Amino acid sequence: MTHGAGAPPTVNRRSDERSRPAGPRTARDARPLAVLAVVFTLAQLVVIRPTLGLGWDEIVYTSQVTTHHPAAFFSAPRSRGVSLLVAPVASWSDSTVLLRIYLAVLSGLGLYLALRVWRGLFPTRVLVVAGAFFASLWVTLFYGPQAMPNYWVAVGALIAVGAFLRHREDPSSAGMPWAVVAGAALMAWMRPTDAVWVTLPLLVLAAVWRRPRLLAAVVGGLLAGGVPWVIEAYASFGGLSERLAEASRIQGGLGLHMAVDDQLRSLGGRALCRPCTGEMPHPVITLWWFVLPVLAVLGLVVAVRAGRALRTAVPLACAATAALPYLFTIAYAAPRFLQPAYALLAIPVAGALWYLVTAPRGRWRTVLRTVVAVGLAGHLAVQLAVAVHTANRSAAGREDWARTAEGLHRLGVRPPCLITGHESIPIGYYTGCSSGATAGNNENMTAEDIRRTAERVPVAEITRAGSRPNGYARTWPVHRVEDYDVRVAPAPDTPRE
């Protein structure tokens, strides 16, 4: 007999004992998860390499806590979670290699702890497959060692949803509500709006089931992680509604937008697809994206037949609400946006894969095992190829910023200094300068501010070669550095034209 999502699952004693840790087996059962976490950590360092320079968003987050570079402009959609996450290293060291290693180790530990929460809901073998699937995605490998928020929203989602279900099935587990608080707080700490979307099904279920403790845990976690963002909204943006409106403007105006095709285009290794034009990646690269929901639904069907629908339906629901805003409310895409959805979908997908290789009998078992093995091997090969391609392309772009910074140094633009114009935030960081903009999403000063600054420190305006500069820089001497036109403000004691 099966049960609906609101009823407690029924399982036989033998299967329940296999999935619930107990006694001296606890440590032994957790070893495969620890091995997976170590392999994931090492894979990040080998495939992505710790020498990869900081990207644009990483620079914004890291510069808020480092003493080696001026802080970049912090726009309305961002949250301080990543800055606090990197502070233990970035606050005293400017070594990118050390920061990458720290984040890779931390991300491996985060994956281990998140999967441990699910022990007792699924057998360890299912959790290992789920973790391996999520960890092997190129987007997970690429962003695990980066100072970016989305991977940590995924970890928080796994912790919050798993702990929620654990406490639902065993109310005597006193530590699980606190794990719900921790997971929800981690999500809200990193991206408050994402945290709300992920936890919507949990809030509804806790209210329907009349579980005030679970409801308080989810709400308490959201408040613990989100209140600093709200306080900053009033301190720096004029209020919460003003910050939300500004965040919407920066993201192109939130509303009804079809971004499914944009997400597909980004699967080929585009860190940001805005505007998202061009051809679709090869079908081999996007195939897994279409197989993923099919396997997730199969996992739900299997769970319903086994009388444990709730354990699979809840992460599926949370994955759907996590993906919804990034598929249908913004007009651009970045593959990292869907990491929380991928992490939650990995649980039912792993259940489906185990069903395919164990349930059928006779020749079908051999056939399905072969199909699954070949499919997973091909999937891993594709993900690794895209990860390497993305890392190499990102490294080339960041090396270009570093070379431009060297050219600026040769022109006498050295700290303290100010960079404005095209890609002023990353180039300013690599040069050791502050960055400024008089318009656009990163507007933080006026033309008059820039003129006054040029009377005290070196100031450079950067444009693409042949592009028209801003009015305040039109009379400045122009130099060619890499593929840019660089106009350097005359020193205060130099006659101006």
TrEMBL record:
Statement: the UniProt record of this protein carries the keyword Cytoplasm: no
Spans through the membrane: 33-52, 97-115, 122-143, 149-165, 172-189, 195-209, 214-231, 287-306, 313-334, 340-358, 370-388
Spans annotated as Disordered: 1-27
Keywords tagged on the record: Membrane, Transmembrane, Transmembrane helix
Compositionally skewed regions (Basic and acidic residues) per UniProt: 13-27
UniProt key word rRNA-binding: no
Name of the protein: Integral membrane protein
